[in-house]
Specification:
Layout lengths: L5 E4 L7 E7 L1 H4 L3 H13 L3 E6 L7 H15 L7 E3 L5 E7 L7 H8 L15 E5 L5 H8 L3 E3 L16 H10 L3 E3 L1 E2 L23 H11 L6 E3 L17 E2 L4 E2 L9 H20 L2
Helix pairs in contact: 3-4, 4-5, 7-8
C-alpha cells in the first residue's frame, strides 16, 4: 500500500492522503449505527482511514483498550484501514489520541508498554499510537507513556508550544533521539470567533494561501515522515481546505477563497504533497 504523506482530519482530498476520522465514546455507544454508516461511506470512496480518538467522559487506558479492540475487530480487515510501517518494520494501524495529556503517563503505560497490565504491544491490537503535544513538558510524558510519537494538531502558529513552528526543530530532535515519530500539523489559517468570541488573538489570516504555504514549508523543513492538515471541513474554526464558494445566511457569513478559485487550497495541497514526495525521496538517498 502506498504510504500517505498528508493526513487530513475528518475527510480527505485526492492527493495521496489518509483521512483521519474522529471517534469518541458517544459514537461507540448511542450512535454506533449512524457513525459506522458514515465511516463505511468513507471506505467505499476509496480513502485510507486512520482514527483520531477524542476525549470523552470516563476515557481511561482500559476504555481505550476496548475502543481499539472494537475498531480493529470491526474495520481491521478492510483494505482502506490505514497501516503504517513502524521503525521495526511492522505494519500497524495508526491512531491519533487527542488531549492525551488528560490521562497520566503511568495509566497510558498500562496500555502502551510491553509490561502493562492490559498492554496491546505484541497483540493483534497493537498499533502506532500518536499523542498530542501542547506544552513542552508533554514530550517527556509522551515518552514515559509508551506512545510511538507526537503530533501538534492546532492550526494557529504560536497558540501552543507544540503548534509553534519555531519549536518544531527541537521537538523533532527530541523525537529522533528517542525513536519517536514527530508529526507536525499545518493549517490554512484560523478563526474561531463565531464559536469563541473571546479568542480573536489566536486568529491567523490566510493571506490568499501564504499562511498555509508558510506552515507547509516549516513542516517540510524538519523532514517528517507524515504531515497532518487541520482540517478538511472544520468550518467553525476556519481551517477548512475543501472547496468553498461565497455564502451568507441570516446568522453567518461563510469564508470563501476569492479572488482564488473554490478549489484553491486543494490545489495547494496537491502541489505540496507532490513536493513532499520528491523531498522524501532525497532524504532517503
Amino acid at each position: 500500500m502506498t504510504q500517505p504523506d498528508f493526513a487530513v482530519p475528518r475527510t480527505s482530498c485526492r492527493c495521496r492522503t489518509a483521512s483521519c476520522v474522529s471517534r469518541n465514546k458517544e459514537s461507540a455507544d448511542s450512535s454506533v449505527c449512524q457513525w459506522n454508516n458514515r465511516l463505511l461511506l468513507r471506505l467505499k470512496e476509496g480513502k485510507s482511514v486512520a482514527f483520531h480518538i477524542q476525549p470523552y467522559k470516563g476515557r481511561t487506558d482500559q476504555s481505550m483498550h476496548d475502543n481499539i479492540k472494537y475498531i480493529t475487530d470491526k474495520y481491521g480487515k478492510h483494505s482502506a484501514f490505514y497501516r503504517f510501517r513502524s521503525s521495526t518494520g511492522r505494519i500497524l494501524p495508526l491512531f491519533y489520541v487527542y488531549d492525551s495529556y488528560l490521562t497520566p503517563p503511568e495509566s497510558w503505560a498500562e496500555l502502551l508498554t510491553a509490561k502493562g497490565s492490559h498492554s496491546v504491544r505484541g497483540t493483534p491490537y497493537d498499533g502506532i499510537f500518536v499523542a498530542l503535544i501542547v506544552e513542552e513538558r508533554h514530550k517527556h510524558d509522551i515518552l514515559a507513556s509508551g506512545f510511538d510519537g507526537m503530533y501538534t494538531y492546532f492550526a494557529s502558529n504560536g497558540f501552543s508550544f507544540g503548534s509553534s513552528h519555531q519549536n518544531w526543530k527541537a521537538i523533532k530532535t527530541f523525537c529522533d533521539a528517542n525513536n519517536l515519530l514527530f508529526i507536525p500539523s499545518v493549517g490554512p489559517g484560523y478563526v474561531d470567533t463565531a464559536v469563541r468570541p473571546w479568542n480573536n488573538h489566536n486568529t491567523r489570516n490566510r493571506v490568499n494561501g501564504r499562511y498555509y504555504e508558510t506552515s507547509l514549508q516549516a513542516a517540510l523543513s524538519v523532514r517528517p515522515e507524515i504531515v497532518t492538515i487541520t482540517s478538511f471541513n472544520q468550518w467553525h474554526e476556519g481551517t477548512q481546505i475543501e472547496k468553498a464558494v461565497p455564502k451568507k445566511t441570516v446568522t453567518r457569513l461563510y469564508l470563501d477563497y476569492q479572488p482564488n478559485q473554490p478549489g484553491h487550497y486543494l490545489e495547494l495541497t496537491r502541489q505540496w504533497a507532490e513536493n513532499f514526495n520528491k523531498e522524501k525521496d532525497k532524504w532517503l538517498m
